[in-house]
Input
Amino acid sequence: MATFRVQDSRVLAVEMTGDSVKAKNGSMVAYDGTMNFKKLTGGGEGIRGMVTRRLTNEQMTVMEVRGHGTCWFADRAAEISLVHLQGEKLYVESSNVLCVEAALRTGTTFTGLRGASQGNGVFTTTVEGTGQAAIISDGPAVILRVTKQHPLTVDPGAYVAHQGSLKQSFQSGVTFRHFFGEGGGEAFQIRFEGEGLVYVQPSERDTIAGDV
Output
């Protein structure tokens, strides 16, 4: 089993003993020992996955890394967070996936209007199974807990990922920036209800649904 370790918050070290991982294409920055690199089609899901991602505009180009030794991964000095899955499903923007254990299954799922509000399509990437996944964010990710008593509303430009038994709904209205006299277009926010965790970043990506 590959061992994941975050080094200096922006570099992921993965120790392998003949096993493999799936990582963002081109994210390898160094390695020792013996490693083999292979580009995977359709985000590692084969031809069907490739077709699905093209139809949904959920782009995810990954490579398989297999070998003995340590391989280091990074992507534009983004901050790295480790997610430990125990038979769960993680919903994450494809651009925020850095590396996952080979045993984890990746897929594509419908997310509704949130994807459209971000300009990333109406689908997102899923990572499912038991193992470790490394996700990246623009600045250190903040993990917010959602409970039945405390639902959470998130700016879609700051959303990175979520896991657990969460229901999403989408609402339009005043954005956070309006409180400071900025912004002027229609905007969306994501509301999460249920039990689970939401990962947000302290920096907002550009969106096409107004100032969010």
